[in-house]
Amino acid sequence: MLNPWRLRLLGLLDSLGTVRAVAETLHMSPSTVSQQLAVLETETHSRLIERSGRRVRLTRTGIALARRGREILAQIAEAEAELRALNDEPIGTVRLGVFQSAIYTLAVPAAARLADSHPHLHVELIESEPHESGAALRSGEVDVIVTTTDYVKFPWDRDLEVVPLGTDPVVLVLPPDHPLARRRVIDLAACAEETWACDRPGSYMAELTQRLCHESGFEPRVACRFSNCLLLLQHVESGRSVALLPALAVPPGTPVVTRELSTPVHRNVAIVRRREAGPRAAVDAVVETLLDHPDIPALSAPGSAGHR
Q1: pLDDT digits (tens, 9 = 90+) for 182-237
Q2: 6 and 33 in contact (C-beta within 8 Å)?
Q3: Which residues contact 134 (CB under 8 A, 6 or more apart)?
Q4: Which of 10, 11, 127, 165 is least buried, going by the fewest C-beta atoms within 10 A?
């Protein structure tokens, strides 16, 4: 009989590409992963992996079993959920990956409403930026994510269901006494001589900032790189930098000034989940609650704004 745990290891190897990546995802040693995959080969009487030096790759049989295994695991999860969820009551844990600027505006209020409406459902919130969340969803580290569909490196797949959530504008963030703060709308070219606060290299906002600055004819001179939006806002507040941020990332009352760009830029925000054999009551409840959010001034309805 096939072991579900070993099927998951094979599926992760298919998605992530290396034994080391699988081991790091599951907090195991590479040797343990290799041993379990070897046991799976014995169980199936099939050669699932080809070894070339220190690298491995799946055989045709391995690829077929990995993909069928994902279907089997989804069916097992669905069956377990059905057994636990009497009368369709959402129950269990849903791991929700959310980019930082949507955690306190969207995810925390949703989790609080779910705690009241579905007391047997536990939502685990996990900070997961757009350059991280796609892989986490594909590998099973999270069950559903809030991300942006604008991130070109997102691993889109037919196995994923995308539910539009809304759009928020990308704004220029300035110190309160900055000369440009007197303008209502700003051409980014006016910031060519400014010093910039940016996100980590390779992140969605770092790449967007660099692209927009390049399109405006200059290379941004970076003073700091913070993954924490509050640290970035504090640096701008101190008068040492300017920044581009989604409007959701600037809480009301923050002592900075935000201004629209002369060429508007918007971020498309969406909920993404894995397609599975049937409805999962717990994930469905989380998605429905995220969609049924109270008014958030920075977040417009899907399709109400264009993007670049």
Answers
A1: 999 999 999 999 999 999 998 889 999 999 999 999 999 999 999 999 999 999 99
A2: no
A3: 145, 147, 151, 153, 154, 155, 156, 272
A4: 127
23: CATH:
1.10.10.10
Per the structure, the count of domains in the chain is 3
In this prediction the pTM is 0.69
Instruction: Say whether both 103 and 43 belong to one domain.
Output: no
Return the structure tokens found at 257: 């000034």
Residues 280 and 152 occupy one common structural domain = yes
The string of DSSP codes covering 51-108 is: EETTEEEE-HHHHHHHHHHHHHHHHHHHHHHHHH-GGG---EEEEEEE-GGGIIIIIH
Domain co-membership, 278 together with 139: yes
User: Is the Cβ–Cβ distance between 275 and 159 less than 8 Å?
Assistant: yes
66/28 same-domain check: yes
Instruction: Give how far Cα 209 sits from Cα of 146, 212, 286, Å.
Output: 21, 5, 32
Q: How far apart are CA 137 and CA 102, in angstroms?
A: 17
Query: Which residue, of 83, 107, 134, is where some domain finishes?
Result: 83
For residue range 159-180, list pLDDT tens digits in order: 889 999 999 999 999 999 999 9
∠ at Cα 134 (133, 138), nearest 5°? Answer: 115
At residue 264, φ and ψ (nearest 5 deg) are -60, 140
The parent domain of residue 240 ranges over 169-266
Structure tokens at 88: 């369709």
Phi, psi (5° rounding) for residue 168? -130, 145
Confirm whether 296 is domain-assigned: no
